[in-house]
Each structure stands twice: as C-alpha cells, then as structure tokens.
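Practice problem: predict the structure.
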Amino acid sequence: MGEAVTAVSETLTRAAPLGAPDWRERALAWRDAVLRQPAFQRWAARFPLTRAIARRRARGLFDLCAGFVYSQTLFACLELDLFTTLADGSLDLSEVSARTGLDEAATERLLRAAVSLRLIEPRPRDRYGLGPLGAPLVGNMALRSLVEHHALFYDDLRDPVGILRRNRRGATAISQYFAYASTDEPRTMRLDRAAPYSALMSATIAPLTHEVLDAYSLESHRCLLDVGGGEGVFVREVARRYPDLALMIFELPAVAALAASRLAADGLGDRVGLHSGSFHTDPLPGGADLVTLIRVLLDHGDAAALEILRRVRAALPRGGVVLIAEPMAGLKGAEVVGDAYFGFYLAAMGAGRARHPAELKDLLRRAGFSSSSVLKTRYPLHSGLIVATR
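Answer:
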C-alpha cells in the first residue's frame, strides 16, 4: 500500500490544477489517482475489506469488454429456438443437440455459455432447463424482434467514433431501416419501406403499452388521439380496457394503411378514426382531450420535438392532456438505457436523443403547456412517463 500512496502523491503533485477546485473535486481527483495505480489495485484485491469491491469492479469492466459476446450468445439461443425447445421440460446434451442441429461439442459450448449468463441452468442427471433469464424469453416476440434487429445496429457500431463525429460515409443501416428518418418527404414514403420498421415497432411496443395504462388512468377522458400511433398496438389495448372511449390515430399515409388493415382484422375498423399526414407539416385533428406520444419525441431533435408539442397543444382544448411515454435519460435504475443504449442508437439513426425528464418538462413549458408531472412506471427500462396539461 505504501508504494501506491507514494505514486498517488507524485501524480497529484505533477497534475496539480492551476485553479483551486472545491473539496469534492479534490477528493475525486485523489480517488481517481488511487484507482489507476497498479500497486493499489493489487493491494485492494488482497485486502479482506476491499477484496469483494475490487472483484466486482473487475467483473464489471470485463462485462463491458465482453458485452457483444453475451448478446450474440443470446442471439444464437433465439436463432436455434433453444428456449422454446426447453419450455416443456429439461433435456440432456444429446437431446438438445438433436433439436438444434448442432453437433454435441458445439451444443455443449453453447449450453455452457448460456448457463454462465443464467439463460439456461443445469438440472439433475446431466440435463438442462430454462434459467431465470431464459424463461421469460419463451414466446417473447418483442425481445426476439429487438435482438434480431440488432444485427443492423451492430453493423453501424463497428465505427462508433465515426458515428459520433458524423463523418461516416453513406447512410447508416439504422437510418435506412427507419425510412422516415432518411427522407425529406415522409408523407410520400412507400408501403414496402414502412412495413419493416412498423412491424418492429408494433412488436416492441406491447410492454410499454401496459406500463402506460397501468400508471395512468384514462377514466376521466372522452377521446384519445395517438399521434405516431403506428399500426395501432397501443390503441387496441386502450380499446380493450376502455370500451366507451373514442379513439383516433394520426400517422404517415403508408403506416396508416397498415393500421387500417390491423384494426379491421381486430374488429375495430369502425371504432378508431384514422387520420394521415406528417406531424412536421400538418395540423393534428381536433376533438381529443388526451393526446398520447408513445416513443415519438426521442428520435427527433429539440426543434422538431418542440414543434410537435406545439401542434399537440393546438389540437387540445383548454384542460386537455398530453401523455409522453418513452425511454428517458437519467431515470434511476435505467441510466444505461437512456444514456448509453439510446444515446448511440439515436446517434446511428442520425436524429434525436433520450432526454432527461427535466428537459422534456422544459420543452412542454416552451410549447405552452401550463403544468407537467413525472409519473412512476414499474419498469423504467421500458419507459418514463410525463403528463402535461394545456
């Protein structure tokens, strides 16, 4: 420990700041200087009171390095339908091998990797069953769609610095996938370009839908307008829970056509009013006392988001409410979702960012809303929730 302290003292002396930082800054500078010393790292790994912390941080750092391997292990399990294979009961190595089409050596390699990630767990008599993280994946089409979609995202992330500097040559895979992000005229987008991303949004929005409706009651409202409502997944769940609530969707023409087919198939074609247009250029339909923005603002810059909110306010009566539900930055327990995952995802997309609730509240104030509040959701990983009144 002595050599570590000496090294830290020398480091701080060499790096003494010109100004006089406050005590917290000095303390953090001292901590950083200590933690980066190899001598201290070796001492902390041996000392009983710091050993567990040192090991936990070492594991955390390794997980950051190996995260891609972990996600690809999950992808392989989904690609081979391993979770569905084990849903009806445990199997031994040879049975899993036969079901997946892998030889036994490859099957054992995959199973051991999945066991280490708690996707699969060993069972008595050399059998394997679902693990605590694998069981919820059975039949989870939302997560499966997201994992499969990550193939595009990972391709873009081969050059993360290029994305940050915005000097990547050509369009990113993500921006091309979300067709409305790569065109100056989203209203003219063809159906075949809208269908892939619309299907992904529909598959992944279901968990968020339940979060929103469990956190905010619609009992006091008479008509809901879902702006950017996609194929109507959110509205269909609202229709099930609130059979007397009038419903409308505003979407781009190509996506509205997809919504019309889905709603008609569910017997809701006559109940839901469909309005097509672009919320960047067209006024929103009137008549609703509640407007929902489900994962809409985060993939738009501040100027565009502010304009959307102003159009929403113009469509609402006095006392009307807007409900914003999307991943947000800085939410306790979900920091990596808003700041890390969506930080880079939206950078690859080329527009938007996950905002802190305070930033969204400021945009609402600038758009003319009189008051706003943050509501808690069960899983902030899925979504944050803000309600504002006109």
